[in-house]
Design a protein that fits this description.
The complex is a heterodimer of chains A (about 325) and B (about 280). Helix content of chain A is about 45%, strand content about 15%. Chain A is α/β, with parallel strands linked by helices. Classes of the chains: A alpha/beta (about 325), B mainly alpha (about 280).
């Protein structure tokens, strides 16, 4: 009886104690799905760095989800001091629909606000039983491809554009041929998850499909966490340079009075220390010195950017993913 | 409950055995087994990793938020449920039938909609968004939004439990009290409330179980800020997607246990009730 009373007392004190409001500065980073582990590490490192430099304590909170859904939440009032999303159009949407930051946000940080890049790779089952080595192999009869839905997932848009770019860059490639290639590819997709993590879990845990199209960082994490010698990564001959973007949300930091800290946080993403953390999580650092140190863990792939192949994200967004766009025309759910 | 022969089934033992067996098998397959899986998975890597799973700071924040939300939502719905049941059974007025039907509305709409309505009302782009922003009030993606969504989803539990009892009891005793000079409050406290207390308790317990377990509606208004607006069900999803299966199942078993305790208390109360206490 005494033990129980004591236990209850401890519980009560614990509940009370931890609801005491912390006076220190808090930033909210609204990010996309596969960066959970990355930002858990970066947030800790930044807090330590900030404390050492200024003597002030700071807490960074993060929220993760599909990039498009996260942008939507910020538009609906989720008070993000900074956004670190998968695609430029997602931050554009926040600027255009909610006017929380200026539309020229991308010119405010180095490397047009891209602190790290990634690319799209294949994950296959151990031993690569279906012999998948390049994009063309995905169209072999009987191969099932797992990718999330480009309508909702940032990662899936990169997958889609990577396939399109590959087909376009083949000898004699034309937009028509690229469209036919992507149409054929999506006829091999049995399930469209709404986000990259969901697709990875569908492939690795539920054993669906023969090949997963995934972010390089998510592919490596999946192989490490879930593969246990069951999965392998295949680097195609060519892929897209995926460029996640970051931005300060001016209206929110003005309201919170966190402009200084939020700006420092974003600057920190470009520091060698943060770039090292990127590399450890298999995101490609934009800092050349850091990239050189970790070059061994990133397969050499010819990459192309959205601007090179498609002109601009604005164009891609309207032509490919808008309602009635190319994706809507070519995707028929597999019966 | 009276133990009378309710139907003719009882007269054919073979049929009775088949029916009972079917029920048992189905219960085990779709109720007991999944719960057992949760527990087995949670304990797979030993009690140490189980404790780790439910004692991380984020896990504690999620548990605290879940308890807090239930502690606000359940009393609100209890008071509302009693008041609404009283009005709906004791007064006759235009629109009464419609109002009665409305109390069951949250059961019939998808939880996603139950969440989305609040975003459409109080989100930055919603009807009251600009006004709330100007006055620095945060509802969506904060505690008030989570409470609103939970209250909305759990409205029917108390009121739907109490209405049938009030209807069955009629208002004779209350009218008698009135003629004897009792005040409204006295009638409510001395006559009405004692008559419906079991229904209220039942409703409160079910309401509590659902309030702690609600996923869909809360997910829409949460914003998923770790350590701040993540409830236990949302935390379980996050852990699962983080590849942290032991912790996900540990958390899931804790949530399931909280619900089971609630149901256990309910069963206990029902037994006391039928025993004539």
């Amino acid at each position: 009886m005494k033990m129980r009373t004591l236990g209850l007392a401890i519980l009560a004190i614990g509940l009370l104690g931890s609801t005491v409001v912390r006076a220190e500065v808090t930033l909210l980073n609204v990010s996309y799905d596969p960066t959970r582990e990355l930002y858990a590490d970066i947030n800790k490192a930044f807090a330590a760095d900030w404390k050492a430099k200024t003597g002030e304590a700071i807490t960074i909170r993060s929220s993760h989800g599909g990039s498009g859904a996260q942008a939507r939440a910020v538009i609906d009032g989720l008070e993000a001091d900074v956004v670190t999303l998968a695609l430029q159009p997602d931050i554009d949407a926040i600027a255009e629909r909610a006017h929380l930051l200026p539309t020229d946000w991308q010119s405010r940080l180095p490397n047009h606000s891209v602190p790290y890049t990634s690319t799209i790779l294949f994950v296959v089952r151990k031993g690569n039983p279906k012999g998948i080595h390049d994009w063309g192999d995905l169209l072999k009869p009987g191969v099932q491809v797992i990718t999330p839905n480009p309508k909702t997932s940032g990662g899936a848009r990169w997958n889609y554009l990577a396939a399109w770019g590959y087909a376009l860059k083949q000898p004699g490639g034309t937009p028509e041929k690229a469209k036919a290639f992507v149409r054929d590819l999506f006829s091999h997709v049995p399930i469209l998850d709404s986000g990259a993590r969901g697709a990875t879990i569908t492939f690795a845990r539920r054993n669906q499909g023969d090949v997963l199209l995934a972010w390089e960082d998510d592919a490596n994490l999946a192989v490490r966490e879930l593969g246990e010698g069951k999965l392998e990564i295949v680097a195609p001959s060519m892929s897209i340079q995926a460029e996640p973007v970051v931005a300060l949300v001016d209206q929110v930091v003005a309201k919170h009075g966190t402009a200084k800290e939020a700006a420092a946080y974003l600057q920190y993403l470009y520091s060698p220390a943060a770039q090292e953390i990127d590399a450890k999580h298999f995101l490609r650092p934009t800092d050349k010195a850091v990239m050189a140190r970790y070059a061994g863990q990133f397969p050499t792939i010819t990459t192309f950017t959205v601007d090179e192949v498609f002109g601009s994200w604005k164009k891609v967004q309207a032509e490919q993913f808008g309602d009635g766009g190319v994706f809507d025309q070519i995707y028929q759910p597999v019966k | 409950m009276q133990h009378s022969r309710v139907t003719g089934i009882g007269e054919r033992p073979a049929l009775r055995i088949v029916l009972v067996a079917c029920t048992m098998v189905l219960m085990v397959l779709i109720l007991v087994m999944p719960l057992a899986v949760v527990l087995v998975e949670a304990l797979r890597r030993g009690i140490g990793s189980y404790a780790e799973g439910i004692s991380s700071p984020d896990a504690w924040d999620a548990i605290r938020l879940t308890v807090l939300v239930a502690a606000i939502a359940v009393p609100l719905n209890t008071v509302f449920g009693l008041a609404a049941a009283w009005c709906l059974t004791r007064y006759r007025f235009a629109g009464r039938a419609a109002l009665m039907a409305l109390t069951a509305l949250p059961f019939s709409v998808s939880p996603v909609i139950s969440g989305l309505v609040w975003v459409l009302l109080f989100g930055l782009q919603g009807w009251f968004g600009p006004w709330l922003r100007a006055h620095d009030v945060q509802i969506i993606f904060a505690l008030p939004g989570i409470v609103l969504a939970t209250v909305f989803v759990t409205v029917p539990f108390v009121v739907r439990q109490v209405i049938p009892i009030m209807q069955a009891r009629g208002d004779d005793e209350e009218l008698a009290a009135l003629t004897l000079g009792a005040s409204g409050w006295q009638i409510f406290r001395r006559i009405t409330l004692p008559r419906v207390r079991w229904g209220v308790l039942n409703g409160v317990l079910l309401c509590n179980a659902r309030a702690m377990g609600e996923f869909g509606a809360v997910s829409v208004v949460s914003g998923h800020i770790r350590g701040l607006t993540v409830t236990m069900p949302l935390h379980i999803e996050i852990l699962y997607n983080d590849y942290n299966l032991p912790a996900a199942f540990a958390m899931a078993s804790l949530l399931a246990a909280m619900a089971l305790v609630t149901l256990g208390v309910k069963a206990l109360l029902e037994r006391r009730q039928t025993a004539g206490v």
